[in-house]
Amino acid sequence: MKYLDEYRDRAAAESLVRAIERESHRPWVIMEVCGGQTHSILRYGVDRLLEGKVELVHGPGCPVCVTALETIDRAHFIARQPGVIFTSFGDMLRVPGSEGDLLSLKARGADIRIVYSPMDALALARKNPDREVVFFGIGFETTAPANAMALLQAKKLGVKNFSMLVSHVLVPPSIAYIAQTAESRVQAFLGPGHVCAVTGLRAYHALCRRYRLPIVITGFEPVDLLRGILFAVRQLERGEARVENAYERSVPEDGNPAARSVIEEVFETTDRKWRGMGWIPKSGLKIRWEYRDFDAERRFDVGELATREPQACISGLVLKGLAKPDACPAFGTRCTPETPLGATMVSSEGACAAYFQYGRHRKATAEAVP
């Protein structure tokens, strides 16, 4: 494909690997924040190409994975209510809650439907005026504009039977959380290109100044990732800490002002609980008071829910970059994509799912066999 092959070019990738090896005079630990980057790293073996020079650890960049268990359980509660059509992207249906997942709830008779955009859910509400249609709105800043547009449109059209269960999380506070974690070994970050295409780079400059850690914004193809790693290594070797944009073709300094404006119209920042990480201040978005009629948490009185995480799952350590998926005793044996213990094994952006998909479970399985 035009404009894609050049970012998967073997000669270019090998040249970047040689440059990283040449310029690294000590081992460095770099965290890629985005789950899409994690999958590319595992798919193309980028981490193995750099063994002994750079260790790549995986961050909390999968919005499905970090959606709080309490939020998943609220979704189950709402989906069970009479007259509700509960809509979601497909990757949320198999995320385990305290009592199974949405897919098993659907099998028991709940009206749960996969949609491809929040506007599909809004259209469904207009076609079914006698039903309550709820959309499960999750994601980082990348999906927030589309969800905000659906709520703007619902208000403009006066659609009374549409609401949204929101679990939006923000990347910069999660980077701050990692930087402040006492056990963290992270020395630099690869920032999420698609998020920054929306938000711009302002918040990342502030993080660099505060924590003195390099942040390099990069894309998702192997050449993108290796170029971002090279930029990070150069900063680390020179003792620098600044934001560098290695994804210039998609990320302007100011991001997308129109998208940011839509987000700010509908949402405001709030403290948010992250699955496996706990509460992070000002790390999420909630629906503004002016749009409260479309807030599913207000419309359905869920109340307090008792949650239960599987004790064997170490996804919290994985999301914080403190462990790799194949360090989990259950990885590839008790926990697989067919029988997941945690969200990181379910999501298309989850680190555990990436390790399994690209064969890293085979070694873990072999070691588990006497």
What does this structure look like?
This protein is of the alpha/beta class and 370 residues long. The protein folds into 3 domains: 5-61 and 171-245, HypD, alpha/beta domain 1 (Rossmann fold); 64-169 and 255-299, HypD, alpha/beta domain 2 (Rossmann fold, 3-Layer(aba) Sandwich); 315-364, no CATH class. Helix content is 41%, strand content 17%. It contains 17 helices and 11 strands. It has helices spanning 10-23, 35-44, 46-49, 63-66, 69-79, 102-107, 118-127, 144-157, 171-180, 193-199, 202-211, 222-238, 257-266, 296-299, 315-319, 351-357, 361-368, and strands spanning 28-32, 54-58, 84-88, 112-114, 132-139, 162-169, 188-192, 215-218, 243-245, 267-274, 278-287. The strands form 2 sheets. The protein has a 6-stranded mixed sheet, with helices on both faces. Helix 6 links the parallel strand 3 (84-88) and strand 4 (112-114). Helix 8 crosses helix 13 (257-266). It is globular, with a radius of gyration of 21 Å. Residues 364-370 have low confidence and may be disordered.
Q: What's the SSE blueprint?
A:
Elements: H1 10-23, E1 28-32, H2 35-44, H3 46-49, E2 54-58, H4 63-66, H5 69-79, E3 84-88, H6 102-107, E4 112-114, H7 118-127, E5 132-139, H8 144-157, E6 162-169, H9 171-180, E7 188-192, H10 193-199, H11 202-211, E8 215-218, H12 222-238, E9 243-245, H13 257-266, E10 267-274, E11 278-287, H14 296-299, H15 315-319, H16 351-357, H17 361-368
Parallel strand pairs: 1-2, 1-7, 3-4, 3-5, 5-6, 7-8, 8-9
Antiparallel strand pairs: 6-11, 10-11
Helix pairs in contact: 1-12, 2-16, 8-13, 9-11
